[in-house]
Amino acid sequence: MSDTPVKQQNTAAYYMQAVISFAIAALAVGIGVYRLEASAWVRAFLAVSVLYLTTSAFTLAKVVRDRQEAGQIVSRVDQARLEKLLAEHDPFQKL
Questions:
Q1: The model scores a pTM over 0.70
Q2: Are 41 and 20 in contact (CB under 8 A)?
Q3: How far apart are CA 36 and CA 43, in angstroms?
Q4: What is the pLDDT of residues 55-80, one digit of tens each?
Q5: Which of 28, 43, 67, 69 is deepest in the core (most CB within 10 A)?
Q6: Whole-angstrom distance, CA of residue 59 vs CA of residue 54
Q7: Cα 47–48–51 angle (5° rounding)?
């Protein structure tokens, strides 16, 4: 009687699309910074900025995912406790 949510799995095609999309975006930014008509210091600053932004995005995605997974675990524990209490409760028991 428990309505446990179905765990959604990403397909291999979706995973590859995400990887390829990230690679194309990173390559495009890298080429853009390299071909920029500016001094080497400006290009280096932009390259480091892009790397910092990329690592920050990965960190943010991980933190959001971890928080969501922690919430699901707490929800499952609460659901199991409630189901145990309901299973042990006898409404016809004399007081």
A1: no
A2: no
A3: 7
A4: 999 999 999 888 888 777 767 777 77
A5: 43
A6: 9
A7: 90
